[in-house]
């Protein structure tokens, strides 16, 4: 059976949408573990409620980013996930993690990439009077919020209220991410090698 790991750092509303999708069959596969770099992440509670194994690896315990990434790789050995889903995982990964999982590592970002990599995307949309905003799911490469795009979903900006904007963006994320995971599970989404 297709199995995947979800990495989180916080609330985990995307994780919840993904859990729900595995339960109602929209994703044909199971979450082998939820990994967090923060022990207080509410997403861990969501995982426990759904009886999904959790792994906590706190980045503060490592001197170098690479050592943290090696620990991530090691912790996944027993699960052998077919895909890693970053869902609000607030760490920049190094090649130590990215290389072994190249083509099997996706992230969701709250902007229409390549516009606005990094933080505070909603504020940037408001400040720039952008008529549209959206979300992107992409394969992860060595740069921040970069890598080949799997799918995007966009909306018209109707309100300059940041909380409202964030809410609408979350709704788009919760619809899009499970669909992309299901596409990957079914073999309909693949990272093409550079010379293909
Ligand atoms: C989402 O907006 C996601 O795009 C970004 O971090 C946020 C995580 O939210 N990478 P949640 O923890 O899934 O609620």
Global morphology: globular
Total count of domains: 1
**CATH fold name:** Rossmann fold
Name the bound molecules.
5-O-phosphono-beta-D-ribofuranosylamine
Number of strands: 7
N-to-C terminal Cα separation, in Å? 28 Å
Overall description:
The protein has a single domain, classed as Rossmann fold, CATH 3.40.50. The protein has a seven-stranded mixed beta sheet, covered by helices on one side. The mean pLDDT is 96. The protein has six helices and seven strands, in the order βαβαβαβαβαββα. Helix content is 34%, strand content 21%. The two termini are 28 Å apart. With 196 residues, the protein is α/β, with parallel strands linked by helices. Bound molecules: 5-O-phosphono-beta-D-ribofuranosylamine. 5-O-phosphono-beta-D-ribofuranosylamine binds next to α1 and β5.
